[in-house]
Design goal:
The structure is a single chain. The chain is an alpha/beta fold and 296 residues long. It folds into two domains: 30 residues; 264 residues, Alpha/Beta hydrolase fold, catalytic domain (Rossmann fold, 3-Layer(aba) Sandwich), CATH 3.40.50. Helix content is 37%, strand content 23%. It is built from eleven helices and twelve strands. It is globular.
């Protein structure tokens, strides 16, 4: 091999390694107020850390955190300047018009996160800077600060029509950011859409993670394209959730592990937490970084 060829090959290998390292680094979200949003102490842990019980306390985690309980968090938990890259948009699709809020890069994003609200919610819930302890503001800042895109859409129902519209929204932005990893977080009844998206051929083959927050279960997941791809699934549930009992969601989580060995799934139980607790308390950065490390 000539010296010129050796130099070229060495350069090619170095370039490939640098590119790989840059890609790996790009797929790890940088911190944003991690100290304020860290989980409270762990009460117990099981299944090699896949199942965790967190010491949630309303007096500390709502009353001390919020200036006005459940309505306005204390100022140090937010950075509202992220609104500079927030847009209220309308996407026309074959499934219908989809009004949505977009935060961050609408083209060339490295990661896309959607939040699907529950019954009685709207696209505005997922971009409210001050409710849920400022946790949506943190998610917005994480996406904007890491070259990502955050989407909070409206949809007409939690059935096939709603799923078709959300799928169209995902498809549109996936085309604008073909290299992006895509994660869907579903609050409460929004979980019905998470499972429908997992079951669809298009989105089930495209999404890279599901987050169920105070939400429901669906046995059809085991036959879905997403399950076959071993798409990571995160469950956050309050132990005092009277809408979706924690015992049933825990049983579903354990059935995933029993069905598929070493399936990438995690369950965080917020002890004494209620229906909305997981939306307030989920560690977006820690959870998304775990999913990024598992996503194919």
């Amino acid at each position: 091999m000539s010296i010129r060829c050796q130099i070229f090959c060495a350069f090619a290998v170095a370039t490939a390694l640098l590119s790989s390292a840059a890609q790996s680094q790009a797929l790890s979200l940088k911190p944003f107020k991690d100290d304020l949003f860290a989980y409270p102490p762990t009460l117990s842990s099981d299944i090699n850390g896949a199942y965790t019980v967190i010491d949630y306390r309303e007096m500390r985690d709502i009353n001390q955190r919020d200036q006005v309980p459940e309505r306005r968090v204390n100022a140090q938990y937010t950075d509202p300047s992220v609104r500079k890259v927030q847009q209220d948009l309308l996407l026309k699709t074959d499934a219908g018009d989809v009004r949505h809020v977009a935060v961050g890069k609408t083209e060339g994003a490295g990661i896309i996160v959607l939040y699907l609200h529950g019954q009685g919610g709207s696209r505005k819930q997922g971009v409210d800077d001050f409710t849920f302890g400022g946790n949506f503001n943190r998610l917005k800042n994480l996406m904007a600060g890491n070259g990502g895109l955050y989407l909070s859409p409206d949809f007409p129902d939690f059935g096939d029509t709603g799923a078709a519209q959300v799928a169209a929204l995902i498809g549109h932005y996936a085309e604008q950011s073909p290299g992006a990893k895509i994660f869907v977080a579903c609050g409460s009844m929004g979980g019905a859409l998470c499972w429908k998206l997992a079951a669809r051929k298009d989105t089930g083959g495209r999404i890279n993670g599901l987050l169920l927050l105070g939400s429901l279960w669906d046995e059809s997941f085991f036959t879905s394209p997403a399950f076959k791809r071993r798409v990571p699934v995160f469950f956050g549930q309050g132990s005092h959730d009277v809408v979706y009992p924690v015992a049933k969601q825990e049983a579903f989580f354990r059935s995933i592990i029993a069905t598929a060995k070493a399936y990438p799934t995690r369950f965080v139980r917020f002890e004494t937490g209620t229906h909305g607790t997981p939306i307030r308390m989920v560690d977006w950065r820690g959870t998304l970084n775990w999913m990024l490390s598992k996503a194919s």
